[in-house]
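Supplementary Note 3. Input sequence used for the single-chain structure prediction.
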Amino acid sequence: MTAISNIRNFCIIAHIDHGKSTLADRLIQKGHLVEDRNFQDQILDNMDIERERGITIKSQAVTIPYTAGDGGEYQLNLVDTPGHVDFTYEVSRAINSCEGALLLVDAAQGVQAQTLSNMYLALEHNLEIVPVINKIDMAAADIPGTKKQIDHDLGLNAEEALLVSARQGTGVDELFEAIVKRIPPPLGSADAPLRALIFDCHYDPYRGVVVHLRIFDGRIRRGMKIRFMSNNSGHEVETLGVFKLALIETEELSAGAVGYIIAGIKTVSDVRVGDTVTGADNPCEAALPGFREVKPVVFSSIYPVDSNDYEELRSSMEKLKLNDASLVYEKDSSAALGFGFRCGFLGLLHLEVIQERLEREFNQSVIFTAPSVKYKVRLRSGPGGEILVDNPAEYPGEERIEGVEEPYIRASIITPSAYLGNIMNLCMEKRGIQSNMTYLDEKRVELIYDMPLSEVLFDFYDRLKSISRGYASFDYDITGYKPTELVKLDILLNGKAVDALAQLVFKDSAYDRARMVCERLRDEIPRQQFKIPIQGAVGSQIIARETVNALRKDVLAKCYGGDITRKRKLLEKQKEGKRRMKMVGDVELPQSAFLAVLKTKDE
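The predicted structure, written as C-alpha cells, is reproduced below.
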C-alpha cells in the first residue's frame, strides 16, 4: 500500500480544445496502464458522444503508478476535466478532490476565457497550479507570447511553465517529475475516523451503484459498515478498489486515495454526489463541505414519444442523475404530450448531451420542448406577489402582470482584434450592453457585456465561433435580474394551441421567432388530405402564419369526357369530404418538429 506522502492527486484544467484529453492519453501510456495494441485516442472519454464531438463531458479519474528519478514509487491520481462552459460543475467536483492542477495553455491560441475561469476556481480551493504550455510542435505556436500572457493575464510565474507537446509526447517525462515535486501530498490521517467525499457515481445493472470516492481521513476495508451522512442510510462494503482504466480491486483504501466502492446499493436515490461517507461504528464529527449547489440556467420539458414508456423514462432519469449531478428534474405534464419531466440544465450543450445519452445509453425515445430561462413575474394583486416562471404553461395572463424581470449575465469574450467589429454587432443584436473593453496585448481584446441569458441560449455560442473562425472564447456568470417586456408566444396547429410548443419571448423578438417556428414546422409536419394552418399568436392576435398544403388526389382520373358538370360534381364531392375530414382530423407532430424548433438558424 502506498504511503500518503507518495500520493499525488491532480486534475488537468484548461479552455475547451487545448489538449487535456490528449495529455491524459500520454500520461496513461507512460504509466503503462494499457498495451499499445489496445490504445485508442481520448481513452478516458468512454462515451460515444464524447469521441464523436471531440469533447470531454464527464470528468474521469485514473490511478497512474510512477517511479520518480530519485527511485521513489508514487501513485498519481489524475482527473481529466471538461473545458466547455456548460460543464463547469464537473470541473468544480474534480477540483474538490485534488491538491494540485495542471493548467494547460494552447501555444497557438494563448490564454482564453475558460482558462481564467478554471484557474480562479482552482485558486478558491487553494490548489497548487502548475502552468503547462501545450501544442509547442504546431507551426502557429508562439511560446514567448504565451509566456507573456501567463505572466500578464494569469499572474503566474511564466519561467516555471513546462513546455509540452501532448500529441508527440515531448516534455511528458519532465511533467511527471514536476507533478511529484511541485504538487503537495494529501493531508489527513489513516488512523482517524473515516471521512470520504463522493465525487461521482455510475450505475452497473449487475452490481448496483458504483460510488467514486476521495478518502480524506481513515480507511475503508471490505466488509466494513459505512453510513451516508446526508440521509443516514447504512451499507456494507462488498468490493473496493482503484481506477486503472478498468476497476481494479484492492484490500483497502486509506487517507489520500481516490477509488470506488460497491456496497449493493440498488436504490439509486440513496446516493448523492457531494455527500460524506463515514464509518457506522466510528463516525466522524462533521461532514465534509460538499460541492457548490448547482444552479440550472436553461429549462426544458422531456416527454416519452410513447406515453406508456413514462415509468421506463423515470428509471432512466434516476440513473442518469446519478452519473450527472448537475441534472435537475421534477414531474410535469402536457395536454399534447402526456406525462414527463421539467428539467434544468447548465446550458444548451448540456441539454443536447442529456438527450443523446437518454437515447443511446438508455434506449429512450424522447421529445424536448423549447428551452426557457427562469423569469420573475410581479403580480398586480392576489396571493404570491412575485412568482418564478420557467414554464410557458404557468405564465399568468397579461391582465394580472405588473412587471417581469429576466436573468442577466456578465459575458466575458476574449477575441483577436481582427474580429472585434463583427462580435460587437452580434452582442448588440442580442441586446448586450458593453460595460468594458480591454486590449490585453496588441492582438487580443477582452470584451465585457451585460446581456440577457435568454439571448445566449439558442445560437450565440455557435455564431460567435463561426464569426471568429473559432478563435474567440466565451465565459459568463449570472449577475441578477433586470426588467424586461415579455410575451407568451402560442403556436396553433389547425386552430388548436400546442402547449408543448409555447415559448416565452422578448416582445420585440416575438414576430421573428413566431415566423421562424412556423416555417420550421411547415417543413417538418407531414402533409394530410386537408390544409393545415400553422399560426403564431400572442394573446388573441395572430402574428405569423404558414400553411401545409393538402395532398391532392386526382378524382378526375376516371372521368373520360362528357359534360363539365360531371367533373364539377366530383370536385365538389371531394371538397365536402376534405371539409369534414378537417373538422375531425388530428395533426400528428413528429419528433423532428420539436427538435427543429430548438434551432434558430439554418444549419
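The chain has five domains: 4-182, 195-279, 298-368, 375-484, 487-598. The first helix runs from residue 20 to 30.
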